[in-house]
Amino acid sequence: MTFIKTISEGQAENLVQDLYQAAQKNVGYVPNYAKAMSLHPEVYDAWTKFIGAIRSKMRLRRYELVTFASAMALECTY
Questions:
Q1: Is residue 1 part of a domain?
Q2: Please, are residues 23 and 31 in contact by the beta-carbon 8 Å criterion?
Q3: Cα separation, 48 vs 45, whole angstroms
């Protein structure tokens, strides 16, 4: 159950629909992080560009290790 107001997949239009379709294509479903960004899809677009810029300067293994270490430090279970 989400505590964040989101736009459902059935109600998605314009940028949100594009966001959901891209997520569906990439991972096979619409993940919670995409739904959490549904009220501000322009922020999600900026975030993906930011992450892409960071990842472009790192090997994938290093990026994943940094992501994992950050999640552990923040006690994130997601």
A1: no
A2: yes
A3: 5
Domain encompassing residue 27: 9-73
CB 21 within 8 A of CB 41: no
* CATH number for the domain harbouring residue 23: 1.20.5
Domain count, the chain: 1
75 sits in the region (left: phi over 0; alpha: psi -120 to 50; else beta) called left
Q: What is the largest CA-CA distance in the chain?
A: 38
Q: What is the mean pLDDT of the chain?
A: 90
Over residues 8-43, the pLDDT tens digits come to 888 988 999 999 999 999 999 999 889 999 999 999
Q: Residues with Cβ < 8 Å from 41, sequence gap 6 or more?
A: 15, 16, 18, 19
Let me know: does 48 contact 16? Beta carbons within 8 Å. Answer: no
